[in-house]
Structures are given as C-alpha cells and as structure tokens.
Amino acid sequence: MSLGLSGLKKSIWVYHVACSPCNNCDIEILDLLTPRFDVERFGIVLVGSVRHADALLVTGMVNRQVKPRLQELYLQAAKPCVVFAIGSCAVSGNFFRRSYNMAGPVDRAIKEVDPNAIIVYVPGCPPKPEAMISGVVKAIGFLDNLKAKK
Amino acid sequence: MKETIIPIGPFHPLLEEPELFTLKVDGDTVIDVDVRIGWNHRGIEKLSQGLTWDQVPFLIERICGICSTSHPYACVLAMEEICDIEAPPRAQYIRPVVAELERIHSHLLWLGLAGHFIGYNTVFMWAWKYRELTLDSLEQLTGNRNHYAMFKAGGVRRDFSQKAMDFTMKAMDETEKATKMFLGAVLDDPVMHKRLKGVGVLTYEDAIQYSAVGPTSRPSGVDHDARRDDPFDAYGISHDKGVWKAIVLQDGDVFAKAACRILEILESIKIIRWCIENIPDGEIDAGVKEIPAGEGCGHYEAPRGEVFHYMRSDGSNFPIRHKVRAPTYNNLPTYKATCPGAHIADVALITASIDPCYCCTERVGVVDKLGTKHILTQDDLTKLSVKKTNEIRRKLGKTTYDPYAKMI
Ligand code: SF4
Hints:
The complex is a heterodimer.
Chain A: H1 2-8, E1 13-18, H2 24-33, E2 45-46, E3 55-59, H3 66-76, E4 82-86, H4 88-91, H5 106-113, E5 118-122, H6 129-149
Parallel strand pairs in A: 1-2, 1-3, 3-4, 4-5
Chain B: E1 4-8, E2 20-26, E3 29-36, H1 44-48, H2 56-60, H3 70-83, H4 89-117, H5 121-142, E4 151-152, E5 155-156, H6 162-187, H7 190-196, H8 204-209, H9 226-229, H10 233-240, H11 254-277, E6 294-302, E7 305-313, E8 319-325, H12 327-331, H13 335-338, H14 344-353, E9 363-367, E10 373-377, H15 378-395, H16 403-407
Antiparallel strand pairs in B: 1-2, 1-9, 2-3, 4-5, 6-7, 7-8, 9-10
The structure holds iron/sulfur cluster.
C-alpha cells in the first residue's frame, strides 16, 4: 500500500466523471489544462480510461441514472484511488438536493461501495481552478501523512 | 444491405449534458442517426416552482454553465412581462455587456474544441488562452468567473465599477486582435477548407423544417436573431444605430458554422464597446416588490440559439409554472439531415458543429450484424478525425503532424 501511495502522489492521472453537472465545473477542469494554469507542469494528466486513473474528478449531482454507473467506475479504478468531489453539487447537492431525481451526494454514493474511500471536497460553484489545484495539493499532503502512519 | 449500429454515449460526457446517439452505418458511411436526450435530468422546472421569485434566477443560471446569463436573461424578461415593467436605463446597458461577454467565451470555447476534434490542438490552446481574458473581464465586472448572479426581475444586482469597465475595454481590444488572427489562421487554411467545406450541410429547407435556431440555422440562410427581431434593453437601440448586425451566411456546412461563430465574436465586441461607451448613470434596480398574477414569456438569443422561458404566477411567492426550452433541443434533430451520407470520421465534427454536448462520445460500442462488439472511445473517434486531416494534408503536400504520437 505504501509503495502505491508514494507512486500515487508523484504524478496524479485523473479521470473526469461528469454526473449531472451544469458543465461549469467541467469547463473549469478543462481550463486547468490550458495555458493559463497548465497543470501538466505538475504531472497531472487527464486520461481517457478509468483503469489508468489515480484520481476521479467527480462533478455534478448524482442522479438516479448515474449512481450505479459512478459506483461501477469507482470499483473499476485501480486502488488506491482518490475521489475529488468538485463543486457544491458534488459535495452537498447544492440547489438540487431537494430534487426528486437526487440520489445522494458523491461521498454517500461512493461510501456505499467502499466505506474507506479517500474523498477530497472542493466546494464552490464553480470552484476556481486555483481551488482545485489547492485541493490536489492538500490531498498529496494527506497521502503523505497516511504513509507516515503506515 | 449490411448495416452496423454504433451507439455513442450517453456517459461519460466531457463537457455538456449526456445524450445518446445511435448511428446506423454502412461501411464508413452514416445512413441514419437517432438521438436520445434526458440523461442529465435534475428536475429544474419542478425545483423552480418551489423557490421564491428572488431565488429563481440563481437556480436558473445553474441550468447550464456556459449559458449562465442567457437563461436568467430570458427568465427575468418573462417576470418583467408579468409585472409589465422595464429595467432602469443603466441596467439595460449592463445586461447586454454581461450577456455578450458570455457569448464570446462560449464561442471561443467551441472554437477550441472544434480545433481539438480535427487535430489542431494549437487552436484549442490558443482559443482557451484568449478566453481567459473574457473570464477576467467577467470577474472584474461581476465578481465571478462563471455564474455571475447579476440578474433579477427589474434590474441587475450589482453595478459596474469604472475600473472594471476600463479593464474590459482593454481586454476587448486584445480579444479582437486574437479573433482576427483566428479568422485569418483558421479560415484561410487550405486544410481547413478541405476538411470543413461541404461537410454536414444543413440546407435552408431543413433548417426551417427542423426549427433550428441560432448559429446552427443562421449559416443556412435563416435570418433570425431574437435580439434584433424582438428588441429589448440596449439591443434594439444599438441595432438601429447600426452598431451590430446578425451574421447570416448561405452555405450551411461546418465551415459556415465556424465562420458564423467567429464573426459573431466580432459583433459581440462591438456591442460591448458601444454599451460601455454609452452607459447612462442612474439606478440599476426598479425595485420589484411582488409579482402579480399573470403569465409571461421571455426569449433571448443564447450563444447556441434562442432560449425561451414561460412563467406563470398566481400572485403568490412562487411561480406556479415554469417552462424552459433550450436551443440544443431544437438543434439536435438537425443531425437527421446532416449526418446521413457523412463519413464516421466527420461525425465528430458534424455533431460538434451545433455546439451540443459532443463530449458524451466517450464510449462507443460498434455492434455489427454478427453481434461482435468493438469498443471505440472518444480518443479513437478523435484519432480517426485527425487521421483524415493528415491525409488531406499529405495530398496538399504539407507535413503531417500527429498530436497523439507523443502521448502514446
Ligand atoms: S457546483 Fe455549480 S458550477 Fe459546479 S456543476 Fe454544480 S451548479 Fe454547476
């Protein structure tokens, strides 16, 4: 596990899961890759398959159709895997918490299948790209602590 | 006839709401296409009916992150129609500035993605780089990069500061320069001509028949623009003074759609400049206290076409009916006219050309008659598209360039 953890924090490959977002969080994630922020400097790369991913960037509220698919995606990802709940929708449900189609925020959906999942919350509607980068940095710090304890 | 069915989507979208396309193909040629929407259902109309009139615009701008001015704009116009009032003059000039800035960032975003799909990653990076300028202006003017929370029935929530307006004027100069560069670099490129011209043609008749709107229909010769045809706020005066015009082109292919969007950016810049130069002083809010019983509708020309909102009030705190119709709903069925006869490598472009959520094309399963399954991902589709561009380039005698070569 500790080898996995130290490998994980070197160069985080992320997979983007859009549940039912308003696109804004998704656009801000894409923004991270473009010249202004350019997170590839830090080795953060958006990958096309969940099998290659070290982290899932989940945006949007989880509706009834998406929930089983999100859980399936999480189970398919190689562990250890960090889940980033990006945006208020993913963190708490935002406006949509009272919607009839709401199936719980991201953490609840993920913890149903893996109670020990590592979940990082990046609130904001949408969070600024800087906030997302800071979320990743904090996650790396957290993984360091975890490794020290082991 | 041997037929193959390719489902595209519905998950995992990269950018916009998920949809499911089912392509019927014969070899490499598309015969028919079926579109299914409704994967991003959040129950917004129902939620809106449980919120007070003041809260509704906040919810409505969360329908779409890219059109987060267009929806509240149409929504507050509907509310104002119920009350039979108009926003104060200063607010009437503030609103178009925010809305046009949004159009610029939306079109640049589209341009970047379209470039990415045909293998011009440079265009992707450039377009998104210059888009940041627009977002900076929005942040200065309204306080947030996206979701500006500016609109309310009877006015706007925040005033523009002089400093922010000066900043925006400067940013517009830069954006204009960049847009002109795109106009030259993208539209005069022979590879682009080969790749985009005559692809996915939407004829005038089809555009009318499928009720296409916005930059999907205007390149096909349909002269319709909600800002001009039903003038509101500063749009009417500025159009009458000849500050801007609706861009109407004739070809209807992907090239015309790209040209239309780039030219619209230039028109938007003119509107923003004119509004900031001529902005009057005074109140920004008419102070609407309650919404009387009645019904109203509002429409606004969003970056993707006309968005329509209908609201009904019974005089209480909440709307009792709120109906939303977004432009992509009209534009999606045009695939029936544009996709058949195209190559699979072009489908990526054609579906992107109406600026929908193309990005649901992440998982594609190919099912042929024998029932074997191949899974194509969005990457594969993009690669097909890049390959085609390179072939054209080779024929034209240019060196090939493969953005994926390094990544693999
Ligand atoms: S948190 Fe806000 S910006 Fe992000 S998906 Fe939800 S509504 Fe959109």
